[in-house]
Design a protein that fits this description.
single chain; 7 helices; mainly alpha; two-stranded parallel ribbon
Length: 211
Amino acid sequence: MSIGEGHIPYGPYERFVKRPLDLFLSFFALIILSPLMGIVALLVRVKLGSPVIFSQERPGKDGKIFKLFKFRTMTDERDGNGELLPDDKRLTPFGNALRRSSLDELPELINILKGDMAIVGPRPLLVRYLPRYNERQKHRHDVRPGLTGLAQVNGRNEISWAKKIENDVRYVEHITFWEDLKIVMKTVLVVFKHDGISIDCPEFTGTEADE
């Protein structure tokens, strides 16, 4: 089965309500959070330089590639050969704080407005992971990726890749309003408590290597 093939919405909420609600809430959030985003942008510019926004290609619904927006969290430091230093060498305490607070994710509200993402859904991972999914795991791309998701409120980076992706697929199979609301509420708690946060996330190499 190819990515995104044959997905049937679980119910009226997924079919008719979820996308309009995402549009309304993300637009409202951008208005309310614009002062905070302005302050973060200014601090990023002062402490890390420009560009303030970091963009990276990620696979979305049906495996379609889009540009994910985040606040920049790393410097452009390079070695003697002009190559970028490893991520852990370029991640400053300020950038680390942005990641731990999830403030670096705020520009993804723009991705939601554009239709690339949803508020709740499987997190958009790296493009190079696409050929590594097994047939069941491919179903995580049947829907728009999310700002937060079931995997993020059930262990985040502390659980194995196999468990994270299984949570993604389980979510895709049963999308309901109450499930989305529960995930959003749990996300707020996870962010404030910093549960399951690990800056050094291992590479997803495929199911067999992860289990």
